[in-house]
Design goal:
The structure is a single chain. This protein is of the alpha/beta class. It has a single domain, classed as Alpha-Beta Barrel (TIM Barrel), CATH 3.20.20.80. Helices cover about 40% and strands about 15% of the residues. It has 15 helices and 19 strands. Strands 2-3-4-5-6-8-13-15 form an 8-stranded parallel β-barrel, surrounded by 4 helices. A hairpin with a 4-residue loop joins strand 11 and strand 12. Helix 7 packs parallel to helix 9, helix 8 packs antiparallel against helix 9 and helix 13 packs parallel to helix 14. It is globular, with a radius of gyration of 21 Å. The N and C termini lie close together (about 5 Å). Bound molecules: 6-O-phosphono-beta-D-galactopyranose. The site of 6-O-phosphono-beta-D-galactopyranose has 14 residues, from loops. Belongs to the glycosyl hydrolase 1 family. This is Glycoside hydrolase family 1 protein. GO terms for molecular function: hydrolase activity, acting on glycosyl bonds. Its EC number is 3.2.1.-.
């Protein structure tokens, strides 16, 4: 069967500033929470590898952009590091950062690769974190200044902007499950942090539109479809709906419909965890929905009604309402421990079509990582990552089906192009279709999947 995609489909990959740039303390960059946390607790990081050891995009961006071209990109997403542009989070702009991002944007455009720029990818400047980070409402205002500065500096050439990548992750990681700084467990704080992220996003969208910019602005969400263990068991169905409200609809409804889901509001009210909201906030959120939605998809969430009695924390936690469940017999990613469920991507796109006004969207991350070293390297140095090609094909087949049925999908970006540093997982999972050899000054080698991606994008589709 031939899977042919619409004309002008966006093909490419996604990355982020903190995971690729390097020069983490050079050229005027300020400290962010990752730099700080690594300094304080290096053992939290896989093999104790911290944010200083990236793929060095700061120096190698020209070479990398050529490789993007060679692997068939017509678009590429990265983020502007807040602490590079504003070393203190607010105040003086770092001119070296302006020069660097100008150079990257110009180089992409010169190579016919459209820059997609995200503003926040988990990288709170430490000067703001010291005052509470997203917990402090002042951070919302600092973020709006950061966003406005980016639109002013780069908006003449950047026409696709995103306010956040996966805003639920700093909430889960920093305030519930301890894989981001500040590494606390407190659901009330988690709710306030998430609320401020939503408000910051709406305010940035408002500014963008008021500036009469000529592009589009959206948000990137990791939508994790929540399936009940047994669709005929009302308790499982109810538990799955709660997980969906907390982890998906919290950000999806507020970004696309401009309002928070009623069941989530009721749940939070019952435990006295509603966030502090100021007059006018809800109107701002209502009036500033996104133009465009990025969907990151890696894995589904399987849910069953609560059976365990163990409590993860003294106060309320999302896990008080459901248990996660591993469905027997399912295909798993042996490297990451995640279920591989290709149809999940189709279910998300169908849901967006049926319940979210068929919002203009694209797949902004999808991919598979290998844990540990790349032991699939042949003696001659070639890298045969057929499993990655299969993974992408299987997901693209479902994206294709959704498009056939009317979903408004504009593109597909893989996570990621170059193997890169990934937060506390460092280089545990190598997702790139281009290998990066850290022992050899970051030498790049296109993997089999990178060559396949080029062929596929040249034909705007593939046979399977
Ligand atoms: C996404 C993030 C990326 C990247 C990716 C892989 O959630 O947007 O920043 O980290 O996941 O993550 P990991 O290496 O933890 O599997």
């Amino acid at each position: 069967m031939k899977y042919q995609f619409p004309e002008n489909f966006w093909w490419g990959s996604a990355a982020s500033g903190p995971q690729t740039e390097g020069v983490y303390e050079g050229d005027g960059k300020g400290q962010n929470i990752w730099d700080y946390w690594y300094e304080q607790e290096p053992t939290k990081f896989f093999h104790q590898v911290g944010p200083e050891k990236t793929s060095r995009f700061y120096e190698k961006y020209k070479e990398d952009i050529q490789l993007m071209k060679e692997t068939g990109h017509n678009s590429f997403r990265t983020s502007i590091q807040w602490s590079r542009l504003f070393p203190e989070g607010a105040g003086e702009v770092n001119q070296k950062a302006v020069d660097f991002y100008n150079a990257v944007i110009d180089e992409l455009i010169a190579n016919d690769i459209e820059p997609f720029i995200n503003l926040y990818h988990f990288d709170m400047p430490m000067a703001l974190q010291e005052k509470g980070g997203w917990l402090n409402r002042e951070t919302v205002e600092a973020y709006v200044v950061f966003a406005k500065t980016c639109f002013e500096l780069f908006g003449d050439r950047v026409k696709k902007w995103f306010t956040h990548n996966e805003p639920v992750v700093p909430v889960e990681g920093g305030y519930l499950y301890q894989f981001h700084y500040p590494n606390v467990v407190d659901m009330k704080k988690a709710v306030q942090v998430g609320y401020h992220e939503v408000l910051a996003s709406a305010k940035a969208i408002k500014v963008y539109h008021e500036m009469n910019q000529t592009g589009e602005i959206g948000i990137i969400l990791n939508l994790t479809p929540s399936y009940p263990r047994d669709e005929n068991n009302p308790e499982d169905v109810k538990a799955a709906a709660i997980a969906d409200a907390i982890f998906n609809r919290s950000f999806l409804d507020s970004s696309v419909k401009g309002e928070f889901p009623q069941d989530l509001i009721e749940l939070l009210r019952d435990i006295d965890h509603l966030p502090e909201i100021e007059t006018g906030d809800l109107e701002t959120i209502k009036e500033n929905a996104v133009d465009l939605l990025g969907v990151n998809y890696y894995q589904p969430r399987r849910i069953k009604a609560k059976e365990t009695t163990t409590k993860l924390a003294e106060g309320p936690m999302p896990d008080d309402y459901f248990d996660n469940y591993i469905m027997p017999g399912r295909k798993m990613n042996p490297y990451r421990g995640w279920e591989i469920y290709e149809k999940g991507i189709y279910d998300i796109l169908t849901n967006l079509r049926e319940n979210y006004g068929n919002i203009r969207c694209f797949i902004s991350e999808n991919g598979m990582g290998v844990e540990g070293e790349e032991d699939y390297i042949n003696a001659d140095g070639s890298i045969e990552d057929d499993y990655r090609i299969e993974f992408v094909k299987d997901h693209l087949a479902y994206v294709h089906q959704a498009i056939q049925e009317g979903s408004n999908v504009q593109g597909y970006h893989m996570w990621t192009c170059m193997d890169n540093w990934s937060w506390t997982n460092a280089y545990k999972n190598r997702y790139g279709f281009i290998a990066v050899d850290l022992e050899q000054e970051g030498k790049r080698t296109i993997k089999k999947s990178g060559r396949w991606f080029k062929e596929m994008t040249d034909q705007n589709g593939f046979n399977a």
